[in-house]
Amino acid sequence: MILPCDIRYTDSMQSLVNKRILLGITGGVAAYKSAELTRRLRDQGATVRVVMTPAATEFITPLTLQALSGNPVHTELLDHNAEAAMGHIELARWADRVVVAPASANFIARLGNGLADDLLSTLCLATNAPLLIAPAMNRQMWLNPATQENISRLQARKTTLLGPAAGDQACGETGPGRLLEPDEIVQAIAASFKTDQLAGTRVMVTAGPTREFIDPVRYLSNRSSGRMGYAVARAAMESGADVMLVSGPVALEPPDRIQVVEVVSARQMREAVLADVSLFDIFISAAAVADYRCVETAGQKIKKEDAGMALQLKKTPDILFEVSSLSSPPFTVGFAAETESLAANAKQKLMNKKLDMIAANQVGDGVGFDSEFNALDVYWPGGSQFLETAPKEKLARQLMELIVKRYREKEEV
Ligand code: C5P
């Protein structure tokens, strides 16, 4: 199996592979260095989208940045064509990091005051992604109390400051205010990802139902939509993990930046899981694996000749138990969908299946399956927590936090 991080990047900057960097360029002579920065970021495996302020386009052309980033460059807040392709809110959500390099004194002042009067400043307000700024300006402008006040304000709001360096300046003066070198900026961005909770961790998730064929046109299956498992896989990816998703048949879009292995039956899911699970640190079994399959699958469509018929079934392999029984198992998390005695059944499964954690939910009567919402009772040896009804995306992030916490605690033992 090849995870994205195995492909080309083996050095210390592996943390930029697959990462999405929104690079903001403001007006300053150092803007020419952003071209090199874009190239280096891409060299390290990042996807780069560039947003330029109108002043930046006076120093370097959008066409250069478009060619180097491989993506259209965004310059206008109210550009209908650009909004139709990728609107400013979408861009703000897209980014894993927003990096402004060079950041001019004027831009820093606007950011410090929370202005949203152009595309870049609007994005900085609209994004949830960590913001990194690399100032570049004349030394007097940098040392001016107004600029220093704005910088302090931004740092108080958790903006990361990259530089500036000191040295010869384009204006002929010498002192602080030089843009850091592209390599230094790349290093700092890479370092910002290394603090992600699951950076360098590999997570395998199973999701969706399985289908157990009776004949070529009929199968046994269940109501699982795969939404919870897909949300868990995304939450793990957002926490910095390399994620592999082994998915039964679902009607969901394959999530971005996650390696998806599609399977149909329980036996195929088992094969896919066992082939690679030894490479993973955490295994989360969210799939609703069919418990039984037909002893024999008919080669042709079965004719309805008799008044009734009996299907002979046999148990499918318990994938989760096989994983937790490995000689050095990953941190193993199961799910339990129950229609009754939720707590008792979940605790029993936690023990019987030798799990590190189990997330149990009540199903039937319009909850659990096919729904955007869910609630989870999470148990682990010696503890539990109730995660109240919420959209599955939110619940998945909360569950991931619990998993990370327990995983780290177990690692320390
Ligand atoms: O025993 P039960 O099916 O309720 O256990 C549910 C948990 O076991 C889920 O995490 C599910 O993904 C996993 N499972 C499995 N293989 C099976 C049946 C269930 O991995 N054959």
Short description:
The chain is α/β, with parallel strands linked by helices and 413 residues long. It contains 14 helices and 19 strands. The strands form five sheets. An eight-stranded mixed β-sheet has the order 12-11-8-13-16-17-18-19, with helices on both faces. Strands 2-1-3-4-5 form a five-stranded parallel β-sheet, with helices on both faces. A two-stranded antiparallel ribbon has the order 6-7.
Q: Could you please describe the fold and organization of this structure?
A:
By secondary structure, the protein is of the alpha/beta class. It has two domains: 173 residues, 3-Layer(aba) Sandwich (Rossmann fold); 217 residues, 3-Layer(aba) Sandwich (Rossmann fold). Helices cover 34% and strands 24% of the residues. The chain is built from 14 helices and 19 strands. An eight-stranded mixed sheet has the order 12-11-8-13-16-17-18-19, with helices on both faces. A five-stranded parallel sheet has the order 2-1-3-4-5, with helices on both faces. It has a two-stranded antiparallel ribbon with strand order 6-7. The longest helix is centred in the C-terminal third of the chain and has 21 residues. It is elongated, with a radius of gyration of 26 Å. The two termini are 30 Å apart. The N terminus is likely disordered. Bound molecules: cytidine-5'-monophosphate. Cytidine-5'-monophosphate (C5P) binds next to helix 12 and strand 16.
